[in-house]
Design goal:
- The complex is a heterodimer of chains A (159) and B (538).
- The mean pLDDT of chain A is 89.
- Chain A is an all-alpha fold and 159 residues long.
- Chain A has seven helices and no strands.
- Chain A has one domain.
- Chain A is globular.
- Chain B is of the alpha/beta class and 538 residues long.
- Helix content of chain B is 38%, strand content 15%.
- Chain B is built from 19 helices and 16 strands.
- Chain B has a ten-stranded mixed sheet with strand order 14-13-12-11-7-10-9-8-15-16. A six-stranded parallel sheet of chain B has the order 3-2-1-4-5-6, sandwiched between helices.
- Chain B is globular and about 105 Å long.
- Mean pLDDT of chain B is 88; it is low at 427-454 and 532-538.
- The chains are: A mainly alpha (159), B alpha/beta (538).
- Chains A and B meet through helix 1, helix 2, helix 4 and helix 7 of A and helix 1, helix 2 and helix 15 of B.
Chain lengths: 159, 538
Amino acid sequence: MNLNQNKLKASVTLLRIFIGWHFLFEGVVKMYNPEWTSFGYLATAQGPFDWFFTMLIGDATIGWVDTLNIIALMLVGFTFTLGIFERVGAIVGAGLLAMYFLAHPPFPGLTQMNVEGSYWIVNKNLIELVACIVIYQLPTGSYFGLDHLRKNKLKTQEQ
Amino acid sequence: MKWTRRDLLIGLGGLPILGAVWWAGAASSVGSRKKRSEILEQLNIKPSLPPAVPGIGGEPVRIGVIGFGIRGEQLTRALGFATDEWKEEMRLAAEEDPNNKRLEDFESQEPLNVKLVGICDVFDVRAEKFINSFSTDDNKIKRYLTYKEMIQSGDVDAVVIATPDHWHAPMSIEALNNNVHVYVEKPMTHTVGETYTLREAAEKSDAVFAVGHQHRQTLSFSTARDIVEKGTLGHVSLIQTNTNRNDDNGAWNYDIHEKASPETIDWEQFLGSAPKVPFNKNHFFRWRKWWAYGSGLSGDLLTHDYDRLNCVLNMGIPASVSASGGIYTHNDGRNVPDVIQVNMEFPDFSTGSSQTRGKEKGMTFCYSATLGNGFNRPTILMGHDATMELGNRLTVWPDGASTRYADMLEAEKMLPNVPIYQYDPAATSTDAVSSATSQYFADKGLMWTYIDGVRVDSTFLHMREWLSVIKNGGKVSCGIKEGFDEAISAHMAGLSWKLGRKIEWDAPSQTLKPIEGIDFDQVLLANENWNIQPEMVG
């Protein structure tokens, strides 16, 4: 049982680090590219919530949307790779992915733009979102991550 | 509370991952930006901003419209006036397809300082539609029965001419002689002779003369000019432009109005200089299909493509033109070709060369058109160093064997199949997506145009420029010189097709090289296959 637990923890840790890696990279690339903007992604939004996304592309809002997106991506990246406050990270990550998914949902009848592969209702964004839920349910920061030091510290103090 | 080495390894194990990812992200971002800016610096292309023109101040320009058919309505909309019928039609279209933004675009169009004062149309229904739509209590619009009456009335400052081709020159000349400003549709004239008479009238007149080649306002073309002038493409030896249409409207089989009759149409006036034939609805509404009134592909569509390139390259009138083609897709009684290939030779023209002096000189402009297939063939400028696709959007690819880019190609900083420059002033969304993924995408022009709010119709810009020159002086971008080039080149193409031989231009004397026993204008106006086959008329 314990052995299985450890295997599960190791697997989830790997999942957590890779998702963090992915988010962090996306965030850093955007941060270092001053010309990057989510304008195109939002302007081409489709599906039942397109009105919401096209609302975000106004002159006044688009700068905020871009900055918040980078901050959120990095937050998930930091918490997941470092293994601390990962439940906060998981919620933010799932929220971000839900937005990405809803802006361009792979629903039948909608044209898929700029995507590799073929999808029907479920796509990689949705799968990564579910993975974030798994991270939320099974925090592994204390198994591998900064949380280990924090928990350890608490433990030591309790003793 | 001491942490063991094991604790630290477990606790801080994520740090090196974070560092590595950060470094990789920063390096790839900065690296690709550097690579891109190196290329852009090398190319040094300046995306064009929308033209700024001095305002149209003072009293509104009093405008008379001659011809209120399909194009006449479009031009009037560019002036800021749409019929209720059109608005309703567009409202329904937008309801059906939310992407149809034509009404929205029209409504956000900047108002021009003009007043519609008169209409002249030989078809009662159209004249009445104009008056019903635009006449108000404080501005009663007058219907003139002839263009002369309108021009000589003293009540109009400017006329917009959107009639069949054979009326363009006589009306323009009459207006210019009366110092009334002219905006005339293309082709500027219907015969070679008229082209000279009109040029003389325009040069003598104080009025402003503009030809309706609205794409001179298209931002991508002014950017294209910059690209070519900077030698980005090297020596351009071949230009391919095309017309690809495959529908009735595109083949000029426009709708025939149910109220058309000898009672509602002034047939004699429509005919003008054309051969006297009995009243014929088909001729009236689908006049582009006969040389008597129109000039087919060479006058209607080649002129667009020719002028598009003339505005980018300023290559002028070709030294010679050969054309071939036939009536292959719409054998419905028309006598203008529906498939045509026109080769224009410019043996002394060059866009500049990156190779040994004197090695490269001369260019062929090839216009290829069919009204029987709608596959989109883009306009391509083929240079020794790069290829440019020219449309509303511009894309430049380096050529694998380029001399200018040899070093960058060698170093794989450029790849022959990856564009080195892309520009889309009209783009709103989809291209912004590719800008996130394409490292070579230069989107400055794109965002600027969009953030400024509205997508602007180039016909509106063209009209605005004409009105601004009327009020403030200056030069229109498509005036008599450009119109002369366009008309002569189009007539050479028409003549070549009709005669089945090469037509040559003598630049020093500014005349067509004569062919013994041939009167060019007689040939241009000649109407073979004049009898209509009624069963083919749809």
